Amino acid sequence: MKNHFMSPLKRAMSRIFGFDAELEAEANAKIAALDKSLAIIEFDTKGNILSANENFLKVMGYSPDEIKGKHHSLFVERAYARSSEYRDFWARLARGKSSSGEFKRIGKNGIDVWIQATYNPVYSPRGEVTKVVKFATDITQDKNKSLDTSGQIDAINRSQAVIEFDLKGIILRANENFLTAMGYSEKEVVGQHHSMFVEPEMKQSGEYRAFWESLARGEYQSAIYKRLAKGGREIWISASYNPIFDDNGKPFKVVKFASDVTEQKMRNADFAGQIQAIGKSQAVIEFELDGTIRTANENFLNTVGYSLEEVQGKHHSMFAPSAVKNSREYKEFWKSLAVGEFFSGEFERVGKGGRQIWIQASYNPIFDLNGKPFKVVKYASDITEQKLKNVDYEGQIEAIGKSQAVIEFNMDGTIRHANDNFLNAMGYSLTEVKGRHHSMFVGPDYKNSAEYKVFWEKLNRGEFESAEFLRFAKGGREVWIQASYNPICDTNGKPFKVVKYATDITAKKRAVAKISECLVSLSKGDLSASLTEKLDDEFESVRKALNSTIERLNELVVDINRTATSVSNAAREIKMGTSDLSDRTESQASSLEETAASMQEMMATVQQNDETSQSAVKQASDATKKAERGGTVVVEAVNSMAEIEASSKQISDIIGVINEIAFQTNLLALNAAVEAARAGEQGRGFAVVAGEVRNLAQRSAKASVEIKNLINASVNKVKDGTQLVRESGENLVEIVDAIRSVSSMIDDMSTATQEQSQGIGEINRAITEMDNMTQQNAGLAEEATAASENMLVEAENLQELVRFFKTRSA
Questions:
Q1: Which of 181, 224, 665, 798 could bridge across to 697 with cysteines, CB 3.0–4.6 Å?
Q2: Which residues on adjacent β-strands are paired with residue 167?
Q3: Dist. CA 52–CA 407, nearest whole Å
Q4: pLDDT for 274-300, tens place per residue?
Q5: d(CA 77, CA 492)
Q6: Is pLDDT at 484 greater than 80 in this prediction?
Q7: Which CATH code fits 2-145?
Q8: Start and end of every PAS domain (predicted)?
């Protein structure tokens, strides 16, 4: 069967490498290595199975006779096999379109199998599709490992948006997914610039120009971008811009994948391309037959943390743990590879710095023309993270199994397995329970109840259950458990078994029941109850503490009863004493009220006298001020009189001068008249004037005499007035002195009255305070009487309450 499907591979390799014998031998060796490491199956163009290698048969669980001649639909679900999508799938393969990706397939007995596979049409020399070869890897446990880049690119082209540009950004072509996403037809975009999808600000920016300059230099770009679809609708895409290079290594166009995809679409579908795809998706390293490293790809170097220069020429043992590389098995391992034996599995390896690494790997000897191995190619996947998770999960499950009772059930409730903790708790052996139903551990009533049926229906729906459960061990013994029933789901999320984790809490439940029984008796007042039966170690201290508490409570109740009786008697005596005190206090309060009233009347009289004295003092003060002002006026009048007298004397002197002037004028006028008479007729006018002057002088003299007489009379009267004013001033001084004396006496009397008022006020306040205190004493006496009555009632109530308890002393 191997040779049957190897021939087209050889033809494909021959077309790639020519007919050089050495190259053909190496290609044959690599194909043989693929046969050992991959699951391979051949179909005709209609999907009928022609052959399959051992790896494929092992993965799917079939023998060659069970599948040969059958249709590929044997491995898919019925609904998918009847779909137009499935028919299109085979139609595309028949037209020469390969397909690759992750596929869910159905193995023997309906087992779900996930594979990473490529379906590769094989052409005749005339270019016709003659058959389909499928290369697959079982990824049921780790289905995210990819072995075929060509299939991935095809899948991307079907499911994602793809567009091509020249180095200036002019659109060359776009697939349907891209056109649908952007809302354009192909005619609307081809020949346009990429800038039609960006915002105007971005289009004019230096950043945008630098973006295309970078792509034109062959630099890869990948990020999340904001783009504009038809009508200005915003679109955010996760895209990679991939410059495509010609044979001279010069970029000539850019392919954009609108997703986080960085691999270019493989155009060569032959097996050389498949081997290259494996190298891109997996860690690959080549060794000499003695284990010396020839080369390693970037994936492998990234996995172990070394550069190529650090590993090339060194031995594989640099990656092996010390215990492995010094072992006999390790030496035998390389001896077996040197003679052409294939190895695959999970291996522990050591990366740079001693870092632990777990890989899923195959070691594939490569044979020369003579069938002699000349190197070893290793394909590996890093499974460190998954391995560590599995170890962690296994450790946790093992720890749980050591500390708890664990039992597993099928979804119908039949027992699959139980650990020793569970079997010891229930008193059974594994053979006694395996294959039987869970209902063997429950009571008959619960077993036949709708509730029990619902319990298993919920578990079958994948619903978790956790609680305390009553179960029955061997011989009908009651067992209480704290348990959780945990549905376990397969890769499709469907429950396929139930794992129960349980802890035996029977002793705890029994202890709680005993303690509860004792507490119920205690709640009914029975202090004679106690826990005599020894409990589980966890509750023994609680039992002793409860018994001690009951004993102490019994003593307290007895003491309280005794004390309540004493309090009751004392309360009666206090009540009698406080009642007598209340009567005497009320009498004293009445007397103080009368005294306070008398003092209030006296206080009012004294305050009135004080007010009268204050008024007299004020009036005397006003009289004093007025008398003092009168004395001041008298002094001013005397001074004015003296000034008038002095002025009168000055006026008299002036009038004497005027009188003298008038006499001289009269004499001159007389002389003038004599001279005028002598002059005759010429002096007549002058004589007349002289006569008038003489008359005026006489009149002035007469008037001055009268004025002088009046002034002399005024001076005499002023002298008399001055004398009277002086006497009035002296009298006013005496009056002022007398008023001051009276005012002083009135002031002294007012001060004494105020002091008397203050004294009476203080006495009155003291009496008032005494009255208040007496009133308070009376109130307190009443309160004390009421309190003693209440205390008597409470003491009697306390005695009544204590009688509720049944004590040992009773």
A1: 665
A2: none
A3: 41
A4: 666 666 778 899 999 999 999 999 999
A5: 14
A6: yes
A7: 3.30.450.20
A8: 40-70, 162-201, 284-322
- Cα(365)–Cα(367) distance, rounded to whole angstroms? 6
Q: How far apart are CA 119 and CA 100, in angstroms?
A: 6
Interhelix angle 537-679/684-802, rounded to 10 degrees, is 170
Q: Which two tokens stand for residue 298?
A: 């970037």
Kindly state the helix (H) or strand (E) to which residue 775 belongs, with its residue range: helix 684-802
Residue carrying the six token digits 């109840």: 449
**Residues 500-507, mean pLDDT to the nearest whole number:** 83
Distance CA 157, CA 255 (A): 11
Cβ neighbours for 338, distance < 8 A, ≥ 6 positions apart:
289, 290, 365, 373
Q: How far apart are CA 415 and CA 437, in angstroms?
A: 6
pLDDT digits (tens, 9 = 90+) for 752-807: 777 767 777 777 777 777 777 777 776 776 776 777 677 767 767 766 666 666 66
Residues β-bridged to residue 236: 226
Own/partner long-range contacts of 648-654 (Cβ < 8 Å, ≥24 apart): 648/711, 648/712, 648/714, 648/715, 648/718, 649/715, 651/707, 651/711, 652/708, 652/711, 652/712, 652/715
Model's pTM, two decimal places? 0.32
Q: How many CB atoms lie within 10 A of CB 649?
A: 13
Q: Can you say how many angstroms the Cα of residue 683 is from the centroid of all Cα atoms in its chain?
A: 142
Give the pLDDT confidence score for residue 459 in this predicted structure.
Answer: 94
Beta carbons of 362 and 378 less than 8 angstroms apart: yes
* Average pLDDT rounded to a whole number, residues 19-33: 67
Cβ burial 734-765 (10 Å sphere, 16+ → b, else e): ebbeebbebbeebbebbeebbebbeebeeebe
Which CATH number among 1.10.287.950, 2.60.40.1930, 1.10.3720.10, 3.40.50.1220 corresponds to the domain 585-801? 1.10.287.950
Q: What is the pLDDT of residues 509-535, one digit of tens each?
A: 777 777 777 777 677 766 666 666 776
